[in-house]
Write a structure and sequence with these properties.
The protein has about 500 residues and is α+β, with helices and mostly antiparallel strands. The protein is about 30% helix and about 25% strand. The protein has four domains: about 1-255, no CATH class; about 260-300, no CATH class; about 315-350, no CATH class; about 365-490, no CATH class.
Length: about 500
């Protein structure tokens, strides 16, 4: 982005920056080339992190996640970009868009500018080989509408060089058929409202942009064209609900990195771990690494279990902020003096979230439903013979599935309550608009021991060595659990 902005400065001055500049300018430092008045952009200072996306969402969906509010982000240093890159296979955890297409996440970045945070996700929607081949062959002409006059010359020159073709889709690094996509936004930490959001799908020569940024309408045609743009945009913004939800969840990555589980020093002494030196990291490929622990030993441990319900941040519909020079003086919504930006009053009801709180419905496959029906019939025939065992059982081993995860990813665990209660608890704590559903549960006199044995059998399917998510066909998972129940009973 910094290179693109510098090219725009050099080509035709400071007024032809793309829409992405509204979101990514804070990630850049704009300086003058030495001895000239020519501006150029360079990346801001950066701090890098590596994390497991499955571990992060396991943390987000557990009762151990810390209470969170946006004001915590005021504690991060201003003007420094924080990058969070997913380690391991990015296909380990996928999310379903409104079209039912799987979406993978490669990383998340954020930077604070005064009381505003700019953020973006780097990821992509996964296409089949045939769909990808069709996208490559499609190569539609680049459509440009509502472009201000001072951008026309620059864009015409670019379009002439590319034959006015978008070019093939750009694959996300580490994949062959996920189209590289940037989901970006700006949020006001004081009001808890989004300022603007956008997602950009990348091709060889262009970005296809969907944004609820009011600036996109400044140079639209007449009322009829303006109304048509609003209708189309409203639909696309609604379809991106899962992507906005992912962004809201990932704003909590700094809290995740700061999270610690308290261990009583007496327990640590008994286990012989209280004097263990923490890992300091090391150096490789010219880069220093530092390990961030998840356990701290304390003399007076306090319960770290708290219920967590993430907020859904709404859009501001009364106007928007327009950036000025850092030393420029503008006016806020109430007429107060502010530095670096000014408030533009504009009625934008079309940005309002429709219907209040959002519900996303996910349809399971018909093939899975048929298998489930067969299993329900079989279990119903065996129910009478299990009544006595249930009366003596001290808990259950359960299989849950998160509706937005890939279809064959399951959470296997045990609880002293019911599987439905456990699913409801996880769903209340989730950081994205989703829910856990009970696939199946087995009453057992020793559910903790059964879970341990089942986890050992499932080790080859585990997504993360320390988490309870497994990726395998459900028929195989069910057979392993029930075989272990029968073996223990003998």
């Amino acid at each position: 982005m910094a290179i693109e902005y510098t090219n725009r400065y050099a080509a035709s001055g400071i007024y032809n920056q793309p829409l992405s500049f509204n979101y990514f300018e804070p990630f850049c430092r704009v300086d003058l080339i030495k001895g000239s008045i020519a501006p150029y952009a360079r990346p801001a200072e950066e701090t890098d992190h590596l994390f497991s996306v499955t571990d992060f969402f396991d943390y987000m969906t557990s009762s151990q996640s810390d209470d969170f509010n946006l004001e915590k982000l005021l504690e991060i240093p201003e003007g420094r970009a924080f990058h969070f890159t997913c380690s391991g296979d990015i296909a380990d955890l996928t999310f379903l868009t409104a079209e039912g297409r799987e979406f993978v996440v490669a990383g998340f970045s954020m930077i604070r500018h005064h009381t505003f945070v700019h953020w973006y996700i780097l990821g992509g929607a996964i296409f089949s080989d045939d769909e990808w081949a069709a996208l490559v062959e499609d190569d539609d002409p680049v459509e440009v509408s509502g472009v201000p006059p001072w951008k026309q010359l620059f864009l015409e020159e670019v379009r002439s060089r590319t034959g006015n073709r978008s070019g093939p889709p750009t694959p996300l690094e580490g994949t062959t058929s996920a189209q590289r996509t940037i989901v970006a936004g700006e949020i006001d930490l004081t009001t808890g409202r989004h300022v603007a959001r956008a997602y950009m799908t990348e091709t060889e020569n262009a970005f296809a942009v969907v944004a609820d940024d009011p600036d996109v309408f400044d140079h639209a045609g007449g009322d009829e064209e303006h109304a048509a743009m609003l209708v189309d945009l409203q639909k696309k913004v609604e379809e991106a609900a899962v992507l906005w939800g992912l962004g809201e969840a990932m704003l909590q990555l700094p809290s995740y990195f700061a999270f610690m589980i308290n261990l009583d020093r007496k327990v640590a002494d008994a286990a012989g771990v209280s004097n263990r030196a923490p890992k300091k990291g090391g150096k490789g490929l010219g880069v220093h690494f530092k390990s961030i622990g998840s356990i701290q030993i304390v003399d007076d441990p306090k319960a770290a279990v708290r219920a967590f319900t993430p907020p859904h941040y709404k859009m501001d519909t009364t106007g928007f902020w327009r950036r000025l020079k850092d030393d420029g003086e503008g006016r806020g919504p109430s007429g107060e003096k502010v530095k670096g930006r000014t408030w533009i009053k504009r009625n934008a009801d079309w940005r309002r979230d429709v219907g209040g709180e959002r519900t996303i419905y996910i349809k399971s496959t018909i093939a899975s439903a048929k298998v489930e029906i067969d299993e329900h019939l079989r279990r119903a025939a065996e129910e009478a013979g299990r009544q006595a065992a249930r009366a003596d059982a001290s808990g259950v081993v359960y299989v849950l599935r998160c509706a937005l995860m890939a279809e064959e990813v399951y959470k296997v665990g045990w609880t002293s309550g019911t599987a439905s209660e456990r699913a409801e608890e996880l769903s209340r704590a989730t950081g994205v608009p989703t829910a856990f559903i009970v696939v199946e549960a087995w009453n057992h006199a020793d559910p903790r021991g059964l879970e341990k044995n089942v986890h050992a059998l499932l080790d080859q399917y585990r997504l993360n060595d320390r988490r309870e998510f497994f990726k395998l066909p459900y028929a195989v998972l069910k057979r392993l659990i029930e075989s272990e129940i029968e073996r223990v009973a003998r």
